[in-house]
Specification:
CATH class of the largest domain: Mainly Alpha
Oligomer: single chain
CATH superfamily of the largest domain: MFS general substrate transporter like domains
Radius of gyration: 26 Å
Distance between the termini: 16 Å
Mean pLDDT: 82
Number of helices: 30
CATH topology of the largest domain: Growth Hormone, Chain: A
Strand content: under 5%
Shape: globular
CATH architecture of the largest domain: Up-down Bundle
Number of strands: 0
Order of helices and strands: HHHHHHHHHHHHHHHHHHHHHHHHHHHHHH
Helix content: over 70%
């Protein structure tokens, strides 16, 4: 099956909105085809508590649906919106067939068509929410950057400056420990308190508390008088990082429409990159600040304290955003949820559709959760959840072991070791931050079209090659002008490869991979994975630079990028352009079957595009791929 009219409308805006939807009516046919139908490959779905969550509304008649929605409106103090909710429920039952629904007038149909033909036309409130989440991301990015600059100054003041040319030393381990303190706290405590905080305070309340911790501890860092004191201040900074990093992507995912959800959620990582870039500006601005009487190290203290500024802006901004409608509904506050959705959607019809669809899926998920009350255990014992956990853990692990944070935290030291002056090192590091931010831009436009998985598969090989290039450049004699230039070029090319792929994808992927009833604990686990391994990287890189030299360190991370490519190919399914609740079909394909299919597809692509053989395509793995007419033999499979 294919949707040629819809694709034509995307490629040629002159095609009418209505014409662009004629092809979408075929989508629902997939839901009505038996799994053993010759029209589709056997999906071999595991039986699990989530399998009925794809769209529970398709299992009931329209007459029963209208009766159920009337009862629903009365029970939840929404009687005045009964007709609107009934319309919305009919649209949610069969999203592709709204043109044939007699209850909808022409204005209703125009609005629904426009969702697909003008997907970036969203209410200002939604974009304000995105800005708030972006500022939350910039807080973390700034701290990563300012500690990089401070590394050039505080070790000498606190007596832990490594002696040159002595391999891995105690001083290098202590610098790594100070740098790793927030990640250590996040992995052990910060990420895990996000679940109770979210249940008690909601998404906005959790972000507010995280902002308070971030602001206070950033100021605290600038007032420390020893490396243990600085370690403690940075450790408590993790109580701001953890809940914020866990909650903000989930909050964005729950509020964003499916067609642009990936782009909006990935703003978290994009603006983390902006925070890194702005942190480098602060490093350069404060590098030569003189010490007044009675104060030592005012320059690095101002660097660390400056990261508290965006945290203060976040605190002032967060309560002007609507709360997550899904959180309201989990608390039984349906009128509040409808008001929240009304602020996040253009019309009452769209809000009512999403409200009722979330409601029925919540009911199905609650039934599933009763079978295994331990939510953390469900991440591993329920097949659908286990596959989401594995895929999320892979992309989160690789966000650290791709090598980016070795550069983010220690590039100033690496540049100095490569022959740069301190000022030149800070300027070069600003280039790293600027490229990181600028090259994250393409992912905003491609993550919901090219896909999360494809961005990763392109990113990993490029990162491996550029890391090897950077490491090899350290063998060029320092007397050669090419020595410094190739080192900087290699790091910049690595950043350009990282920023649109492994940079923004992990948090987006983890925020959408889990069903709602385990989403908080699943996101907490995924975020804990990335912070634990962030701690490992931050702690060990100074010692590795001393023991292995930069050549060995860059080669080590290049090898991990090869592993990341293979793990993504075999175990990370695509999640683009599906509603949060429709991802169950994707994660219901058994892991070994998904891996075998991807190996077969890779071999097919090699024969087609490298050997130039004329071979047939491979049937799609998922029903929605068949419905959209995607060629499974291509890279999106």
């Amino acid at each position: 099956m294919s949707s040629n009219n819809e694709k034509g409308a995307r490629d040629h805006p002159e095609i009418s909105e209505k014409a662009s939807f004629e092809g979408r009516e075929s989508l629902i046919e997939v839901r009505d085809v038996e799994l053993n139908s010759p029209e589709l490959p056997a999906l071999n779905l595991d039986l699990n508590p989530n399998v009925n969550l794809e769209n529970p509304l398709t299992l009931i008649s329209r007459e029963q649906l209208l009766a159920d929605t009337e009862t629903f409106a009365k029970m939840h103090d929404l009687s005045e919106y009964t007709e609107t909710i009934q319309k919305g429920a009919l649209v949610a039952q069969d999203p592709s067939a709204f043109e044939t629904l007699p209850m909808l007038n022409e204005e209703d149909k125009r609005v629904l068509r426009r969702e697909f033909t003008h997907k970036w036309d969203q209410p200002k409130t939604l974009y304000y929410l995105v800005i708030m989440c972006s500022i939350a991301a910039a807080v973390g990015g700034m701290d990563e950057a300012v500690i990089n600059g401070a590394n050039l100054f505080f070790p000498a003041q606190f007596g832990i400056e490594p002696p040159p040319g002595k391999g891995a030393t105690r001083e290098q381990w202590l610098i790594g420990l100070v740098n790793a303190a927030p990640s250590l706290c996040c992995g052990l405590f910060g990420c895990w308190v996000s679940d109770p905080l979210n249940r008690l305070l909601g998404r906005r309340g959790t972000i507010f508390v995280a902002g308070i911790f971030s602001f206070i501890t950033c100021i605290w860092q600038g007032l420390t008088n020893s490396w243990p004191h600085l370690f403690v201040a940075r450790f408590f900074l993790g109580f701001g990082f953890g809940p914020k990093s866990t909650t903000v992507p989930v909050y964005s995912a729950e509020c964003a429409p499916p067609l642009i959800r990936g782009a909006l959620v990935m703003m978290f990582q994009t603006w983390t990159a902006f925070g890194i870039m702005f942190g480098y500006v602060m490093n350069f601005a404060f590098r030569n600040v003189p010490d007044p009487a009675g104060i030592r190290g005012l320059n690095w203290r101002l660097m660390l304290g400056s990261a508290g500024v965006p945290a203060l802006i976040l605190i002032a901004q967060v309560y002007f955003c609507p709360e997550s409608p899904r959180w309201y509904m989990m608390k039984g506050r349906y009128p509040d949820a409808f008001r929240s959705l009304r602020r996040l959607r253009h019309t009452e019809l769209q809000a009512a559709r999403d409200l009722y669809y979330i409601h029925v899926l919540l009911e199905a998920e609650r039934e599933a959760s009763r079978k295994t009350p331990n939510k953390f255990l469900e991440l591993f014992v329920v097949p659908r959840n286990r596959r989401a956990t594995l895929a999320s853990a892979i992309v989160m692990f690789m966000q650290q072991f791709c090598g980016v944070n070795a550069i983010t935290f220690y590039s100033s030291n690496i540049f100095v070791q490569g022959g740069f002056s301190q000022t030149a090192a800070l300027l070069a590091f600003f280039g790293f931050g600027a490229i990181n931010f600028v090259f994250a831009g393409p992912a905003v436009w491609t993550i919901d079209t090219f896909g999360r998985r494809n961005l990763l598969l392109v990113s990993f090989p490029l990162m491996a090659v550029t890391l090897l290039m950077t490491g090899f450049a350290f063998w060029i004699p320092e007397s050669s002008p090419a020595h410094v230039g190739i080192i900087a070029l290699g790091i910049y090319l690595f950043t350009a490869a990282y920023s649109p792929g492994e940079g923004p994808v992990p948090f987006t992927y983890a925020a959408e991979a889990f069903p709602l009833y385990v989403r908080d604990i699943g996101m907490a686990f995924s975020t804990a994975v990335t912070f634990i391994f962030n701690c490992v990287i931050t702690l060990t890189v100074p010692a590795l630079l001393g023991a292995w030299t930069p050549q060995g360190v860059f080669a080590w991370f290049a090898a991990w990028n090869v592993f990341g490519f293979l793990a993504t190919l075999l175990f990370v399914p695509e999640t683009k352009a599906l509603s949060l609740e429709e991802l169950d079909q994707v994660f219901s394909v058994p892991t070994h079957k998904h891996a075998a299919y991807q190996l077969r597809t890779a071999g097919n692509n090699f024969r087609r595009y490298v050997l130039r053989q004329d071979i047939g395509g491979i049937p799609p793995l998922y029903a929605h791929e068949g419905a959209l007419g995607e060629d499974a033999s291509g890279p999106s499979s």
